[in-house]
Write a structure and sequence with these properties.
Length: 465
């Protein structure tokens, strides 16, 4: 096939180089954006009198036909037409001749690809945002059912202080809310229109960049032509957002893996979200959670690949940048695959509330509250810490919980201790006494849930965070 850029060449491209160079395999998914961009560009060219209005009309009409044909599987993409941009331009020229040849006036593939990838990512970000909203809602829904479900909170994976499952789940709500905001901010920075940057140094044609931006829904135009074609910050930023989303999903997945082990038994995954073993008949494995944890590494890999690909590129466009696509597409595909199963897995799992309660009873999770009890009776905190430390040591030696101690045993550690200590160090008192803003008390958690529901309401009406 003759290349659209073949004039300067006397030999055909080597077949292996065609295969090597070609990105149509993976960039064909941007056909909608490419056509939308070309329609805006052609319309603007006609409006500015850069090409005849009749040519502009013919281009726009045929691009719409091409879109339909691609959508109906009637268009064929050619490897040696290199990429989606030249495949579509070639189809156009084959169909309408000279008018089609005028489309690329005042445009380069360098600003064209920058435009297409921005538009593509903006469209994907809208879907990702919706999935994140769904993820947040999943955590809130489950939290609502578990404001009274006491469980041990951990630091260093050692039992620390009692919390509720609702409080734990609402921590993840916060993470995904930040992810949602990050994505909105990333989208705003991506939503800048690069067409008019040309190959690198703009163009001599009197393009109306603002009009194109407006037609395509961009909020502004890029400010520097060299930057316009060679900036991929927004791709890396999105890969960063996706990595953080996966990191959060992976942390909860890891917790579910631990919690569904026989040692914890805090949750049981639904049969539909677990798999068996080919040899061990008794096994029920949390594969979905493990795969989410595993795919996180792959999304990080995409981020590293993108950062590394960009780090040595002199201005402006270089072909290395074609490598941005497979990596960001892979990240997007994986996050879009993970989030819905992540939500379903959480929605369907069984929570073993009594195991959680039992877990909170062991490990002296109320020791801080015992110390605080003495502080409220007037002892300085450091002294109280030491008294209760001795009490815990005694309990461990005698295989008892703090609440198992008799009044006499209690008072051997401090004569400030009275009958009311039993109530003060009950798990319920430990949790509900933590009524500080952001704390796990039932009231605080309920107000956190209310705020979350308001937020979800706001964003479901299409408002940015
Ligand atoms: N397929 C190319 C890419 O994805 C399009 C831009 C090509 N420009 C060029 N001068 N070779 O980056």
């Amino acid at each position: 096939m003759a290349k659209l850029w073949g004039g300067r060449f006397r030999k055909a491209t080597d077949k292996k180089v065609d295969d090597f160079n070609s990105s149509i395999r993976f960039d064909q998914r941007m056909y909608r954006q490419d056509i939308r961009g070309s329609i805006a560009h052609a319309t603007m060219l006609g409006r500015q009198g850069i090409i005849d209005k009749s040519d502009a009309d013919a281009i726009v009409a045929e691009l719409k036909n091409i879109l339909k044909d691609i959508e109906n599987g009637k268009a064929e993409f050619l490897i040696d037409a290199e990429d989606i941009h030249m495949n579509i331009e070639k189809m156009l020229i084959d169909r309408i001749g000279d008018a089609g040849k005028r489309l690329h006036t005042g445009r380069s593939r360098n600003d064209q690809v920058a435009l297409d990838i921005r538009m593509y990512l903006i469209d994907e970000m809208a879907e990702l945002s919706a999935m994140l909203a769904e993820t947040m809602a999943t955590f809130v829904e489950l939290a609502k059912k578990h404001t009274d479900t006491i469980m041990p909170g951990y630091t260093h994976l050692q039992k620390a202080q009692p919390v509720t499952l609702a409080h734990h789940l609402m921590a993840y709500y916060e993470m995904f809310r930040r992810d949602y905001e990050r994505l909105c901010q990333c989208r705003a920075r991506t939503n800048i229109m690069p067409l008019g940057s040309g190959a690198l140094a703009g163009t001599t044609y009197p393009l109306d960049r603002g009009y194109v931006a407006q037609m395509l829904g961009f909020s502004d135009v890029t400010a520097n032509s060299l930057d316009g074609v060679s900036d991929r910050d927004f791709v890396i930023e999105l890969a960063g957002c996706l990595s953080i989303i996966m990191m959060h999903a992976s942390r909860f997945s890891e917790e579910l893996i631990l919690w569904s082990s026989g040692e914890f038994s805090f949750v049981e995954m639904d049969d539909a979200y677990s798999t068996g073993s080919s040899i061990m008949p008794q096994k029920k494995n949390p594969d979905v959670a493990e795969l989410i944890r595993g795919k996180t590494g792959r999304v990080y890999g995409d981020l590293m690949g993108l950062l590394t690909m960009m780090k040595g590129i002199p201005l402006a466009y270089n072909k290395d940048m074609q490598e941005d696509k497979e990596q960001i597409f892979d990240s997007i595909d994986n996050v879009k695959m993970c989030l819905p199963v992540f939500c379903d897995m959480i929605r369907t799992m069984k929570v073993n509330t009594s195991k959680m309660y039992e877990g909170a009873q062991g490990g002296f999770t109320n020791a801080t509250d015992a110390a605080d009890y003495l502080v409220k009776k007037g002892l300085p905190f450091r002294d109280a810490h030491s008294v209760i430390g001795n009490m815990v040591f005694y309990c461990i030696e005698n295989n008892k919980a703090i609440t198992d101690l008799t009044m006499d045993e209690m008072r051997s550690f401090s004569d400030m201790i009275e009958e009311d200590i039993y109530e003060a160090v009950s798990l319920e008192a430990c949790v509900n006494g933590r009524a500080v803003t952001g704390g796990p008390s039932k009231l605080m958690t309920q107000s956190a849930i209310e705020r979350a529901e308001e937020y979800l309401d706001k964003i479901s009406n299409g408002k940015d965070a």
